[in-house]
Sequence to fold (324 residues):
Amino acid sequence: MITRSRIIGCGACLPDRIVTNAELAARIDTTHEWIVERTGIFERHVAAEGECTSDLATRAAERALASAGIGASALDLIILATATPDHTFPATAVRVQGRLGMNRGAAFDIQAVCSGFIYALTVADQFLRTGQAQTALVIGAETFSRLLNWEDRNTCVLFGDGAGAVVLHAEPGEGNARDRGILSSHIHADGRYYDLLKTDGGPSSSRSIGLLRMVGREVFRHAVIHLADVVGEALAVHHMTLADIDWLVPHQANRRILDGTVRKLGFAPEKVVVTVDRHANTSAASVPLALAEAVADGRICPGHLVLLEAMGGGFTWGASLIRM
Ligand code: UT7
Fold:
């Protein structure tokens, strides 16, 4: 017998305000057609003035707890992945913990930008499998709109705000791929590419939080290679092929990255969960948002084998193979 971390609830939260491509085209030198053709994005949600990452995270967390049928007092761990915390410190996870009324256990943030949710899931899984926690809340939440230069057409059309959350519960498994829960996670980083996707500020390098800078074409090229590699790595560990996977839930950065990765892998496009058209790139929130959507609408069902993958600034990238 071994311990598995099973997903017992999912939740999502998107800000009310939707910004369409047409609205952006009225403000900067771009067109709806260019954005759709190059990215597949039609619209994105943007947080209201004063609406913080913790607000979106708390709402997603409450919905995940409700879908799990448990209260916050049952949690003993919160890990929140974000590159856009409410404050430099304390951790946004602790703010969410306070709002949920959970006052025991541990709460902390993880920063791996767009791969943050996969990193957070990986860490939470370790806590559960070693018996250090029984029930964990893992959140990906971002307000990337605050990091954007809204005059820069190269970047501002690409991102949106949102949050997604899952509740993990430690349960016994047999140690094979029929077990329900996280079967394995695979995370990587390569700091040689630090400067290709970053903010030009931060607490120890400047007095401002900075704005997002990206060498888009290079990020694109690396994304397709690393994502295809890490998917292959996850499958190889379990002696599986892509035919065994019921749903691929990829990071939603750009429709062309998504399609390019799926084509490189030879995966069936109809088994890919896509939200980038409506959410744009919500960084650490994108995978749990897409997962929560596909669970809520009944595409992803109990027993399905789901593969999550993401790649982001750092570079960081990773994948998790999960039996729902
Ligand atoms: O999670 C990881 C986070 N980031 C990403 O995944 C982003 C990865 N990269 C990408 O998604 C793509 O590289 C972009 C969408 C950013 C750009 O697409 P591209 O096909 O690589 O375009 P490009 O960078 O080669 O730019 C083509 C042209 C440029 O004009 P010039 O210099 O050739 O005259 C840009 O100035 O498109 C221009 N351009 C735009 N035109 C209209 C860039 N942004 C826009 C825009 N509207 N919004």
Summary: The pocket of oxa(dethia)-CoA is lined by residues 30, 34-35, 38-39, 114, 153-154, 157, 197, 214, 216-217, 219-220, 223, 251, 253-254, 257, 281, 312 (CB under 6 Å).
